[in-house]
């Protein structure tokens, strides 16, 4: 197993990459709606309506960067960092309120 393969877990819509400086936290990156302007060459604005990136190939192949739904490159899709998760799960969901 190579160094890069050990650092990144692949998912159909994005990837989980550990943050190297902050310890065991991981960022979940997803690619949402396609924002490619198909009418830019005629001076207009038209998107195709693709709502979520779906890789057309396996991770590590060129097809992993092409959307199966709209045939656009992954870079045309909106990149969203959904959450940072702890690999050591802890229940830290308590809400504190300040009283005056």
UniProtKB/TrEMBL annotation:
Pfam families: ZF-HD_dimer. InterPro entries: ZF_HD_homeobox_Cys/His_dimer. One of its GO terms (cellular component) is nucleus. GO terms for molecular function: DNA-binding transcription factor activity; transcription cis-regulatory region binding; zinc ion binding. Keywords: DNA-binding, Homeobox, Metal-binding, Zinc, Zinc-finger. Signal peptide: none annotated. The keyword Metal-binding applies. Residues 31-80 form the ZF-HD dimerization-type domain. GO terms for biological process: regulation of developmental process. The keyword Zinc-finger applies. Residues 1-26 are annotated as: Disordered. This is Zinc finger homeodomain protein 1. The lineage of its organism: Eukaryota, Viridiplantae, Streptophyta, Embryophyta, Tracheophyta.
């Amino acid at each position: 197993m190579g160094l890069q393969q050990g650092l990144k877990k692949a998912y159909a819509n994005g990837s989980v990459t550990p943050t190297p400086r902050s310890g065991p936290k991981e960022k979940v990156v997803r690619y949402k709606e396609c924002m490619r302007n198909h009418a830019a060459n005629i001076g207009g604005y038209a998107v195709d309506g693709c709502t979520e990136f779906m890789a057309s190939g396996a991770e590590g192949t060129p097809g992993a960067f092409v959307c199966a739904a709209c045939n656009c490159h992954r870079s045309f899709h909106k990149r969203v960092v959904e959450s940072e998760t702890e690999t050591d799960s802890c229940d830290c969901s308590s809400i504190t309120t300040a009283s005056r």
